[in-house]
Hints:
The structure holds 3 protein chains of 3 kinds. Chain B is an alpha/beta fold.
Amino acid sequence: MSGTVRVPEGDRVQGTHRPAGVTVLRPTSAISLLLHRRSAMVAATLVLVLAVAMTAAACLGQTYISPSEVWHTLRTHSGQYELVVLELRVPRIVLGALVGVALGLAGALVQTVTRNPLASPDVIGVGHGAAAATVLALSAGLVNSPGAMPVVSVLGGLAAAALVYVLAWRHGMQPSRFVLTGVGIGVALSAVVQLYLSDSELEAAETVKLWLTGSLNGRGWEQAGPLAVVLLVCLPALVWASRAVRPLGLDADTAASLGVRVDRTRLALTVLGVVLAATATGAAGPIGFVALTAPQLARRLTRTPQLPLVCSALTGAVILVAADLAARTVLPPLEVPVGALTSLVGGPYLLWLLGRNRVGG
Amino acid sequence: MIVRAFKRKAVTAVAAATVVGGLLAGCSSSSADNDAEKSGTGEGQQNKVIGASEGPSAAPSTLATGMGSDTDTDGTFPRTVTHFEGRTTIKSKPTKIAVLSTGQLDDLLSLGTVPTATTRADNAGLVPDYLADAFPADKSKLAAMTDAGTRQAPNLETLAAAKPDLILANDSLGDLYPKLSKIAPTVITAGNGINWKRDLLLVGDAIGKGQQAQKLLDGIVEDAHEKGEALSKTSVSMLRFTPGRTRMFGVSSFTGSLAVDMGLDRPKSQQFKAISEDIGAESIDKADGDWIFYSVQGDADKTDAGSVLAGPLWKSMSAVKAGHAVKVDDDPWYLNAGPTAARLVVLQLAEDISK
Amino acid sequence: MSVKRLAWPAATLAVAAAVLLSLAVGTRPVPPSEVLNALLHGGSSPDALVVRSLRLPRTEIGLTAGAALGVAGAALQAVTRNPLADPGILGLSQGAAAGVVLAIATGLASGFGGYVWYAFAGAVLAACLVYGIAARGRGGASPVKLALAGTALSAMTAGGTTVVLTSSSATLDQFRFWQVGSLSGRDADTVVRMLPFLAAGALLVLACARGLDALALGDETARALGHRVGVVRGCAALGATLLVASAVAAAGPIAFVGLAVPHLARRLTSGGHRALLPLSALLGAALLVAADTAGRVVRAPAEVPAGVMTALVGVPVLVVLVRRKGMAS
């Protein structure tokens, strides 16, 4: 057999062959893990890129601070740049990276479940739900400002996604129905937000509008802490998810015949994605296009058939950190909200990306 | 089968409609009966204002309970100021003050201090025209102020680079209070035009000019009383045209409180408890009074002002027919609630009505 | 058969009722007899002034914009063979609005006459982008892909507009109108200026009515029946885009009229597009005027923009439609 059949590159171990590009890791004799080599390399590169981006963000701004000064300030917690670096820049950068990670993961999960690269948590109502819940709380006097009670935004995002799911469920869930219902509910919720905006006084409306585009201005450890906790708590679920997404690339019948409970897996992955997106929205307001573009970019880099979770997370972090740096330095002293910048740049890039790629149904 | 299918459709439709209806109802009822203290910036939140008395003095004219500095004499430092987000200790006389919110630039200039950094309202200049005109001697210092971004999103790094020793902001930036306190001692005022008197006193306390602020306030109120006595009991209607809506201002508003101090009457339609209320183009004649003072925000034809002012309904109002409709400057009347603005409003009311 | 016979009188009645309500109802209730009096005999009582100078132009614009959107929706649904197509969902309205905003912010245009060309350019660009993206890959331009591409485009134009406006000296506030459509404060002569574009777009679409009927049977069948599929599609799409552009230039982006109305019309008539299109026009006019009137009542004395009302009402319709078997795929 091995003489006549051409086996593709990869190990040939006792008559079996592994897909190309995959290595087996054996951390202990009892556990073995399949590791896609290219993904691992891409992930390592992305970590490096992220580190560079974060360093650049710490150095650039109103005043340029050299990397060695930044490092010195971080180590000794003193020096003339203590305020700017430790209080203003570093918390913001770390928050940006965490939000990027959460959004990248959420986007990858939702796109895998709906099998559509144009889907994103915003589309299924998370961003709009968070916005609508926040403005309703504002008009009811529960909070003074949009950023005061992030829990409201998180709950709003979760509630909206749940509503979409319930309305779209009919003898089971069809991804296309889910997405279309999400689009509709998103429009209704943004109409509610417009209602509030047209009704409130100008300056209050401006504050809300600013929050609605998503911004990291003035935010830091208070927002990053809860987000980091949520990410840690979700880590086991994410590990499970990285394996559970693979059979979802198949159509429903094949997957079912392989013993995968498609509906339940989809629901669990969606819930995970929604929770991550809602928490990210609670921390920084609704930021668009990161969840949409990061998974696609990551997949182009790793060339895997499925959307890679780790690389999506890292790509999301890089995008957001870079975007926030641009947002605070492009039009000084104006602070462009980072969400507006990601929409402006992410949109055309996504369209170009999809135009070149084969788009799955 | 058909019945079941119909029932399912009906259920979904009802559910969706209920959600939508609930959202609409939630929106309408919540803004109607709202008792919470709102502390956004600017004029005209559509809510009742706690602390605004219902009698003759419509703007709270004393500091809120517990607020203010711990010493009474001007110029004494260190002092601890209790404000709307906590307590701040100011060690020595502040010389480089940053003002981030509306009305505070007016407060400082009227007390004889020029700040080092300030923010701008959306697409406006750093210094409103009426302030630049009222304080020509400070022109060069005003021009040297650092631009710290917009009132809703001040640039913290620029602020930090200006190295202020006191930061003033109002409650709409309350979220930023922790970060602002790290840059410099920060005092948070209430904000909202209706609180202009107590905000002036709090700002005065913070910069060590509390007694001066009190004297300034007393002077303005007395001046308003005097000028008002000379006028007969005229009813004054206050309108503001903005893109998308037209608002009437009530008794408990910045300009409303000045009318109260002057003893002027208000038309029945403006004797509501909220700061301001919307009025549609169709019922603009409800805003009739002996005199109408209206302002237009931005470009006249981008707002309803263009069509309303040219329309026949406006022209049929008694004040318009008698030539008693006056267009006023938006900045001092409706955008910046401070002592110099108050003086200007009182002056304009007195001059125009006595003509 | 009886359903079909009732369709026209029912639609006309709906329009008449909507117009009457729009003129009579508002923050200032005017009894219907007064309304007729004001229209026919003039007069200068406050009520009559309100009816003639404020409500009449509003109603007129509602009728024309609503008719335009209804016809455009029907045409788009036929062209894309997608029962969920709507100028709002597909991002055409937002593209048109973005075109106008950019023109105003850069000072290139003013007044309806200028706006409509930029709206047209914006709508055409949006249509090409959305359709081009959605049509790639397996399955062609399925409802899901079109909707998603439309959503992505809307989010993109919204973000882009925000950035442009933040850096320009214009107030974001002045452009509120172009983010959510509304019928208030419009000029009476906008209607007159709108009519040529309305007529041109409607004629283009009506001319393809037979072809649109054939398209529903599939491209191959349509060709076999002798229709030139590409020409029909292009012609109808062009007409629809023109209609959307004129509606947006007059009243801002209003969604869901184009979605709900053709479905409603199809329930009333089983005929082809030669009956469906005019019926959609009538129903669209009635719907928009009714939505505007409702917006004036729901939160008096404040007015809810018509665009918000149609969204709130249209979304349950969308949800119900999506749940129907076979609609989504």
